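Section: Multi-chain targets

For targets with more than one molecule, the full set of components is provided together so that the structure can be written out for the assembly as a whole rather than chain by chain. Components appear in the order listed by the source. The example entry contains four components.
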Amino acid sequence: MSGNFTPKNPKFKQRVQQSFDRQQAMATLGASIIDIEAGQVSIRLPFNETLTQQHGFIHAGIISTVLDSACGYAAFSLMPVNAAVLTIEYKINLLSPAKGDWFEAVGIVKKPGRNVTVADGEVYANSGGDRKLVASMVGTLMSIYDREGVEN
Amino acid sequence: MSGNFTPKNPKFKQRVQQSFDRQQAMATLGASIIDIEAGQVSIRLPFNETLTQQHGFIHAGIISTVLDSACGYAAFSLMPVNAAVLTIEYKINLLSPAKGDWFEAVGIVKKPGRNVTVADGEVYANSGGDRKLVASMVGTLMSIYDREGVEN
Amino acid sequence: MSGNFTPKNPKFKQRVQQSFDRQQAMATLGASIIDIEAGQVSIRLPFNETLTQQHGFIHAGIISTVLDSACGYAAFSLMPVNAAVLTIEYKINLLSPAKGDWFEAVGIVKKPGRNVTVADGEVYANSGGDRKLVASMVGTLMSIYDREGVEN
Amino acid sequence: MSGNFTPKNPKFKQRVQQSFDRQQAMATLGASIIDIEAGQVSIRLPFNETLTQQHGFIHAGIISTVLDSACGYAAFSLMPVNAAVLTIEYKINLLSPAKGDWFEAVGIVKKPGRNVTVADGEVYANSGGDRKLVASMVGTLMSIYDREGVEN
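Its structure, encoded as tokens over all components, is:
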């Protein structure tokens, strides 16, 4: 994955952070942004038993929630000022059980576009000094221009 | 979608409910099972502001969390007693903004298999008497036999 | 799957057939349209050894080729006169080996939209009187308006 | 993408090439292998008008056919001698129109496993000295052990 892009909005970091802060789901999960670059966003999710599935791992859907936000904001970081971002679809592969002390979800734009942006995402589990890939995503994001009720 | 299957485990309803009850993520989201049939499971998620994204809709990842559980338990309902279920991958299309009073996530087995099961899922938003399709999923589930640490 | 839609173009059948006839890949594979409804298109592919993979089944990619056309033209059948159709992405699950006398690929619109349409697809293998589901697809199609070089 | 793996079968190159040579679909499309490494396979597809869709680009399904073979053989290159490979599912994003002199499809294993392997794929269009990414894939492949009728 790579992310060498020129942002259309010089204040993209502030803009991504402000929109993220309005995602109440992120606060509910305990997730926070740890890095914002042009076309790349990283989110941290601490392990929490309240987010687990039946085997005690973090639920695949919870993993996908932070990874979708990482991919969506990676796409959003490259969009012009008058655009909002919506997820059209994504696919996630669960590669290993999501167990660890905390997780890093990284979203990176693969192909930006005026209307459609494709982003790749990966989640790593961190335990002590170990780091292990647990999930990968491909997401298709849409730029929405000037639609009421959909502002970032 | 259809769901006309013969379960291998006569106590599949009890078994699905017990495993679901161990998914702490479901309790955290406020989700509950409303129906269990052989190869088909429905889950109810009430609207909750703490689960929203930046536009005030339920976060796509949260929608996918309940839908993944619905698809996973639809698959699990057809598995023999010594099997556990794990999600290999899924794809979700977000068809409309997830707004409404409550949501129903329905998972239905499309093709059961000894090792690999494919399930379709749909989420409907319910507002007053209206019912609207907001998301669709295809998930690939795996039966895990006799693996320590992975029991349902 | 269902397909109860009102076409925006009264000549949609003729339009779909004409565009299909310009897909040289369809002629190369020996595929032909067997039905066009508003939001639903069926394509026939005879078995042919020249399209097989290493086990003698039809190659998954060839199955996806006719199914992508079925989904794309199902979407296209609902589009207005000045739109062209492009596939943004699709996912296919291979449910059973693609063996049989001939295959029917059916694409059905799940959710039409001005810019983005989602379609479901299924491929059935026909052998003597038997009919078996061998693959399912979800595809995301885009309407392209007035773009040079992209006309249907 | 990376591909730093130890093959279980020292003759993996020969084995991949022999299986590829039995895929009649590859010969029909004019595709050939240009590189085989442990966990990574590249396939060349020359442009051919007989493989185009209605706008004159290579049909998305044909692109997916060579890319599925690239991903499948990348997975197969890491499998033990008694395993065959089957595609469970894949997702492809079409990033740019598939036009050019020839195309290179590269499949790289992301996560190998005894039963399930996940591979990433990319297709590049080559025109004169230019090279452009036109499609990306994620595929889930299965190792099949000792099943009659499914030998590589």
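Chain C touches chain A at residues 88-89, 91, 115-116, 118, 140, 142 (CB under 8 Å).
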